[in-house]
Amino acid sequence: MGAGLRVAWAWLGRRTTTQLAAGVAVLSALALTASLLVTGAAVRQEQRQTAALAALDDYSAMIEKLNVEGGMTPETITAADATYLSNWLTAFQNGPARRGEAQTLEETCRTGRGGAGVRFIRAPIGEPAGLAALEAVRGVRAPRLGADVWLVRLEAGVLCPGRPVEVVVVRRSVGGLDIAVGRVVDRSGAAWARAVAVVIGIGVLLLAAGLAIATFARRRLTNAVAEVSRALDRAAVGDFSVRAPATEIAPELTELSEHVNQTLDRLEELLAWLRDSADQLAHDFRTPLARASARLDRLAATAEAPETRRLAAEARGDLDALIRAMNEAMALRDGEAWSFETVRLDVLAAQAVELYGPLGEERGVSIRLTSEEAPVLGVRSLLQRAIANLIDNAVKYSPDGGVVEVSVGCDGGGPWLSVADQGPGFSGDAVPATADGPEPESHGMGLAFVRAILRRHGASMTIDDARPGAVVTARFSR
Q: Could you tell me the pTM of the whole model?
């Protein structure tokens, strides 16, 4: 029992709100229908019981009037007796309604209401009298209604020309006579028909209301979840202007919406602090870097020794790299102003290969491109920088006469781009780097910028040992 309850509870836990609401509506309608059927069966049984009691009273009255038990035996019944019985029963049957009869047979056939009595007598001699169908149609024995009681259905045209009727019949043999006495069972009646219609109508309304409420609840929850998702999607690209919906959309998600909004507020606050800190750092570094660059330029211009001029030029290159890295970091910091659009990775890769082709030719490094159409959702300018950085690194660390392989494709996992070089690869026992793992020494700081851009686009980056060289792969989700 406990295991069954756990299974049922687990099954209910997997159902959606819409399915549960629809299930409740269907169960309510089924419960009303079952109640209607049970009530109808009980009413019908009571009507048959009433008709059976009336038929038994009719039988007793007939026996008393005919004095069958006292004077009519098979040996004493004559043809004159049979004629008398036939005439008596005909007058009895076609006369006005008797005591206990709700109406005559004619009225029953016209209105469909029960209560009319029907009789049949067969004597040892002569023709039988009354409704022969009471003997011919056997029906179903109904011992719950009384001894020798049968439930007979007479089709249309047998008793009433235009409608079938149900008759409770008492069949007994007394003296020399076979007697069958019946009462027509009342229909459910107009009041019962109205009650049935009302119950059915309520059931239909409950079912329709349940389905409508389920549909409304599903649509409301779907819209609310879509709003929460939209707020999170915008936050993922640096836009914190959208918040999760309040309680007027879906009260069920109030707590979730509050938590999401609190998290977005905190993230916006932290990012604002980071932006302010970055601005301050950039301001603090720009002036010293500019001064250092100017002094190195003067040193290179005034130095007489070639070694001094060479060292000044190398130092100036290092400063330029620092300034470029700082500018790239500031570009990432301004992520809230990005505009996402559909971008073709294969087109950007082809443009980058064309840009770095002359640089590779100077050292005899060839750049090969293999691509197929690979659209992604992203910021064109940042993706251009990322791909350019990857190819720049590959060309920079490739040996003279080496080959850089650039591949772009799209498979079941989504669009991807890889750049393979023949440089020094990993030093020592270094392991491949993942999006959150270590970065090989041979590829410098450029990959940190690439990794940051890919993270902002929901992409991952892996670095594998190509033996020789390294393969950097960027994979985007669909």
A: 0.42
